[in-house]
């Protein structure tokens, strides 16, 4: 087997498959790569340290995913049967090192909205400079337009248009100096120039489309991880709760109103096991969420020191913990959730 006919998406899929020590069903792997936050996907992505690869291709359709697995099977890279998917070849492409900034679990649902807001802001500022009052927004999404309008209104409370534009371009330039600017700059619009699509930029750079996509994603994840350095750009970032499933968002909303879990269960007519899934998802996603009511820091530290292949192994080592507490302990160390 060789890498001649394996593109970057294949490489990514093989790395995801390789991360798990036993066979996994295609449905589970599809949840990992598209970022479906099922209880099992959230739990195992943390247990096996796959969070950075979680949800990196949220737009992938099931049929396309299945076809890709079939191609990898036919090429001899994986075995695919009723028991699941197993790896036959060991990836040695350097994918993890090449895309070292990927953090899909943290940013999967916020990367594209952030970039759309960025595209629209660049267009607005450019047209201010060119004194163009009539133009079609490069981003038609109404939510994006609303957020950018609010953001601009906030900026102009303290600055003139010229001052706001200058400050914004200073931050943008700082980021692009540390990024692969040719991946992003051709996407921007302003004046008479209409930004190119990702596929068009990939073609201009003579890059395979999936290689361009992962380079683009890696650079944006690096920016999003360091947004505190860029206060203006930071305000374009969607809130972390956007990463949550709709049901978990509703549970978090009630908890933030001061309701306890029993009251939340009653209001939402949900079982405790479902609320547990929500709490694990919230703890994995929302940095300032406190799990101190269910687990303490000493327990988290104890679990974090081990190398585990299953929740059962942790249960045998920490018999006093229930599985809900074990799941929380696995997640808290990485997510930054609080134990107080």
Automatic annotation (TrEMBL):
Residue stretches making up the Helicase Helix-turn-helix domain: 247-330
Pfam families: HTH_40
UniProt protein name: Helicase Helix-turn-helix domain-containing protein
Source species of the chain: Listeria booriae
């Amino acid at each position: 087997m060789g890498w001649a006919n394996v593109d970057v998406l294949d490489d990514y899929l093989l790395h995801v498959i390789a991360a798990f020590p036993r066979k996994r069903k295609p449905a589970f792997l599809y949840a990992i790569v598209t970022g479906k936050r099922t209880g099992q996907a959230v739990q195992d992505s943390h247990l096996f340290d796959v969070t950075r690869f979680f949800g990196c291709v949220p737009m992938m359709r099931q049929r396309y995913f299945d076809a890709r697995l079939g191609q990898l099977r036919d090429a001899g890279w994986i075995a695919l049967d009723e028991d699941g998917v197993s790896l036959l070849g060991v990836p040695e492409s350097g994918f993890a090192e090449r895309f070292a900034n990927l953090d899909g679990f943290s940013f999967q649902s916020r990367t594209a909205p952030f970039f759309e807001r960025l595209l629209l802001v660049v267009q607005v500022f450019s047209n201010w400079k060119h004194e163009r009052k009539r133009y079609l927004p490069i981003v038609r999404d109404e939510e994006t337009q609303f957020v950018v309008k609010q953001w601009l209104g906030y900026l102009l409370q303290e600055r003139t248009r010229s001052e706001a534009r200058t400050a914004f371009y200073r931050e943008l330039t700082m980021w692009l100096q540390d990024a692969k600017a040719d991946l992003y700059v051709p996407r921007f619009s302003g004046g008479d120039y209409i930004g190119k699509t990702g596929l068009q930029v990939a073609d201009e750079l003579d890059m395979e489309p999936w290689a361009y996509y992962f380079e683009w994603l890696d650079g944006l994840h690096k920016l999003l991880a360091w947004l505190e350095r860029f206060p203006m750009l930071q305000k374009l970032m969607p809130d972390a709760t956007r990463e949550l499933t709709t049901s978990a968002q509703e549970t978090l909303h009630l908890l933030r109103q001061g309701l306890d879990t029993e009251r939340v269960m009653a209001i939402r007519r949900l079982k405790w096991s479902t609320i547990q899934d929500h709490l694990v998802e919230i703890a994995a996603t929302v940095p300032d969420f406190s799990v101190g009511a269910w687990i303490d820091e000493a327990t988290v530290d104890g679990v974090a020191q081990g190398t585990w292949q299953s929740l059962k192994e942790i249960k045998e080592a920490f018999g006093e913990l229930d599985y809900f507490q074990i799941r929380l302990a696995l997640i808290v160390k990485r997510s930054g959730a609080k134990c107080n």
